[in-house]
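tool=predict chain=A
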Amino acid sequence: MENPWKTLKINAKYENPWIRLEEHDILNPAGNPGIYGKVHFKNKALGIIPVDLEMHTWLVGQYRYTLDEYSWEIPMGGGPIGLDILESAKRELKEETGLIAAKWTEIMRIHTSNSVTDEEGFVFLAEDLVQEEPEFEETEVLQIKRIPFQEALNWVMEGKITDGISIAGILKAAKILGL
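tool=predict ok
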C-alpha cells in the first residue's frame, strides 16, 4: 500500500547514544497539516529464548527504571544497526545468563510500539546449551531464573511477564515447541 502520509520537515529534538527524538511536520492522510512525534532507536531489540533438553528456559529479573517496577523478561538487549543480529544475540545471551547455544533459530520479527517508534526487534530460540559464567554490564543488576518452559508460559498468561517482546516470543516459542 502506498504511504498516505507526507513528511514536510523533520526536526531532531533530542539525541543520545541510544535514541533520537524527532518531531515531523506532516500532511495527514486527509491532507491536513500536523505534527507527529517519533522515537528512533539506534539499536535493534533482540530477545532470546534459551531452551534446554529438559524443556527449561531462563528468565531475567531486573528493576526497570522507566517503569519504576521489577520486571521478569527473556534475556534481551540491543544490537547496533548494521551489525549481525545473530552475533549480537549470542553476546547478549552470554552476558546475561552465561549460556552459549550451538543451535539458533530466528522465530520472529516484531515492532515494539509502532505508533511512536521505529524500533524493530527479533526473537531467537537458542538450543543445545552450555552453561558458563554471565558477564553482566555495569548497569545490570540481574536475577537469573531457570524454570520449566511451561511455567514461563503460565507467567505470561497470569500477567507476571508484561514485557511485549518477552510475551510475543514465549507465545511463539510455545507454538514451535508444541505446547
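Residues 10 and 73 are 34 Å apart (CA to CA). Strands lie at 6-15, 19-27, 33-41, 43-50, 56-64, 69-73, 76-80, 99-111, 120-131, 143-148.
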